[in-house]
Design goal:
Blueprint (H helix, E strand, L loop, with lengths): L12 H10 L6 E4 L6 E10 L1 H12 L1 H5 L7 E6 L6 E10 L9 E9 L1 H13 L3 E2 L4 H8 L5 H12 L3 H11 L2 H25 L13 H15 L2 H9 L1 E6 L6 H9 L17 E7 L2 E7 L9 H16 L2 E7 H6 L11 E6 L6 H9 L3 E2 L8 H13 L12 H20 L4 H19 L5 H8 L7
Parallel strand pairs: 1-6, 7-9, 7-10, 10-11, 11-12
Antiparallel strand pairs: 1-2, 2-5, 3-4, 4-5, 8-9
Helix pairs in contact: 6-7, 8-17, 9-16, 16-17
Length: 470
């Protein structure tokens, strides 16, 4: 009989999660959860078993105060060192009993004055009370292990913390809200139905009536198309989360550095009439229209003899090869002298002609008809239109309009699932056993995508990027 389970062990998801939750260590972990630096409020977070949390609270706020703490209510306390009883700070504390907490364990948050010295002393007091320092992402990792959130949602938490644009925040919230997990769950249900039909056709071929069980290639074909569409969204999702790499490239003295500074709104790159002034890649991240971009100014391209300039040109060429979008910058006056110049007429390039303020209206119109965006960086003419073009080019209409994959792990898992579905379609009804193997491989990959079955090494790689207190 064919095995219909998609994981390595035939247990239900709730049973698996319960088993992992029970294996969680009960040790207390502590970390500062607020951003570094000074502020009005700083937060120190603790997570552990109910008994361990209660014992810690007795030591740092006193038995009477600890016994009277109401769940999920902020209460004023004096946080004291368990070593000498000295008051570290007076602030608010809230206890969140598990399993309805962030980690699934008992969680305590101390809201103190946002002085790094106070937060360090508070952490030392909690360490002295029996807690240990949390590792990066350990709070969220416990949330995943206890079933409070899926692995996809954990990745969304990381994306929210790191987001540098409004579009990235919106995309991360869609994952955190469970949209991807819901969609993958629907795919998995359809695969189970196909697997059941294949099993029936193999094990009970004589008992099936006409029209029952069997192979539904059309339904699997729709599933294949749906998966392929989401796989293709990865590049847009990656650019949205990381910021698209936009490189200004072109010949020397084309006005790239002036354009770079004008787009940023301040003098970041050195500007000079002397050819070869820019020797290295100069970059800065900015946000326009809900999209994050990493704008890079590069050395002008020409035949050079100076070793330093040659190195700069090589770096420029490498940045161009790795760019998500190349803005090919040319002096508009030189373009008019070089009739038929098509250096900017490439799919991966956005052609821009500079020094538009030194051209006549007829000359500007001629360049625009040839596909060049004409700008005058010092005066700002044409810059607004150029910004709009850049945003459209790098986000491809993806900002908030559709569900996007945004991590390499998600893309790889879904590509594996898609491969399994494609294999099943390829062999079809003629080879139901082979088709079932493809369906099973696809289902297991979907389980891995959502964290239902995941290697510990994958978790280690994911959570080591988190901030300590998350």
């Amino acid at each position: 009989m064919l095995c219909l389970c998609f994981g390595g062990v035939v247990v239900s998801s709730p049973e698996r999660l319960l088993s992992q939750a029970q294996s969680l260590t009960d040790d207390l972990i502590v970390a500062v959860s607020s951003p570094p630096g000074r502020g009005a409020i700083g937060i120190v977070r603790v997570s552990g078993s109910p008994d361990a949390v209660s014992s810690l609270l007795h030591k740092v706020v006193g038995e009477r105060v600890a016994a009277n703490l109401q769940p999920r209510r902020l209460q004023l306390v004096a946080l004291k060192s368990p070593e000498d009883g000295a008051v570290v700070d007076r602030g608010l504390v809230a206890r969140f009993p598990g399993p309805n907490s962030y980690t699934g364990q008992d969680v305590v948050e101390f809201h103190l004055h946002g002085n790094p010295v106070i937060l360090r002393l508070a952490t030392l007091a909690l360490l002295a009370g029996g807690a240990r320092a949390a590792s990066p992402g350990e709070f969220t990792r416990r949330a995943v292990t206890s079933g409070r959130m899926s692995l996809v949602q954990a990745e969304a938490v990381d994306a929210l913390v790191r987001a540098e644009s409004e579009g990235a925040v919106r995309a991360a919230h869609r994952h955190l809200g469970g949209e991807l997990a819901t969609r993958v769950g629907a795919w998995r249900d359809r695969l189970l139905e196909v697997a059941a039909a294949l099993e029936a056709s193999v094990d009970f071929p004589d008992e099936l009536h006409e029209g029952e069980g069997g192979w539904d290639g059309a339904d699997l074909g729709l599933l294949q198309a749906d998966m392929a569409s989401l796989v293709e969204s990865y590049e847009a999702g990656r650019r949205l989360m990381e910021g698209a790499r936009v490189v200004l490239a072109g010949p020397v003295n084309a006005g790239k550095s002036t354009l770079f500074n004008s787009l940023l709104g301040h003098g970041r790159a050195i500007v000079s009439d002397r050819p070869g002034t820019t020797r290295d890649v100069v970059s800065e991240t900015l946000s326009w229209g809900g999209a994050a971009l990493r704008l890079e100014d590069t050395a002008g391209l020409r035949g050079a003899e100076d070793p330093v300039e040659i190195e700069g040109i090589e770096r420029s060429e490498e940045a161009t090869r790795q760019a998500d979008l190349v803005v090919w910058v040319m002096d508009g006056r030189q373009l008019l002298k070089r009739a038929g110049d098509d250096s900017g007429n490439r799919e991966d390039r956005l052609p821009v002609a500079t020094h538009g303020d030194l051209l006549t209206s007829d000359e500007r119109a001629k360049l625009e008809q040839a596909g060049w965006t004409v700008v005058a960086a010092p005066s700002g003419a044409g810059l607004s239109a150029l910004r709009d073009q850049l945003v459209r080019a790098v986000e491809g209409g993806s900002l908030g309009s559709s569900l996007l994959l945004h991590t390499e792990r998600q893309r790889a898992a879904l590509e594996t699932a898609l491969s399994g579905v494609s294999e099943a379609i390829g062999v079809g009804a003629e080879e139901p056993v082979l088709a079932a193997l493809g369906v099973r491989a696809a289902g297991r990959a979907l389980d891995e995508l959502c964290g239902e079955w995941t290697d510990e090494g994958v978790l280690d790689t994911l959570f080591e990027r988190f901030c300590i207190g998350k």
